[in-house]
Amino acid sequence: MVLSDRTIKEELAKGRIVIDPLDESSIQPASVDVRMDDKILVFRNSRRPYIDIRQQLDDLTEMVPMVPDEPFILHPGEFVLASTLEHIEIPDDLVARLEGKSSLGRMGLLIHSTAGYVDPGWKGHLTLELSNVARLPITLYYAMRIGQISFLRLTTPVERLYGSPSLGSKYQGQTDPTPSRMHRDYRLHGA
Q: Does the annotation count 159 as an active-site position?
């Protein structure tokens, strides 16, 4: 069951859902708008001929600060990582879905490739996977409304929250756009 604005407000008031900072005007009928923070992780040209999923990728990216009221230009076909301005926490009996704003989608801006699902127990800023599938560059601004998060109630509270040591959660508590940490799966599990 998707939570309505009334239930979202109740859960926020109880502190079960945390969205900080919260702009009350961001609460929509069945979601809450989220804004873009002030850092973008760009992929730079590399001498690597490919991305090896078993290797740490820190040398493939560079953090670029955004300047208030100055646009970051996302070119056609470009892919960057950003994060939500809001710190978000999800309780043990809810999951959340992060979706793009339809007005931005109609311009060709996608805000996630596959990472639209937010597990129970999540705490941190959500990383956005921004892609421009249009033929023209798109401007991005600090604190612009970039997406919306909706909440769904689970049949029961989960047994293990995201971030539990036994899960090996790789992104709990992140505050900046965070590159893939898939290489940790190979170190942890020998896959």
A: no
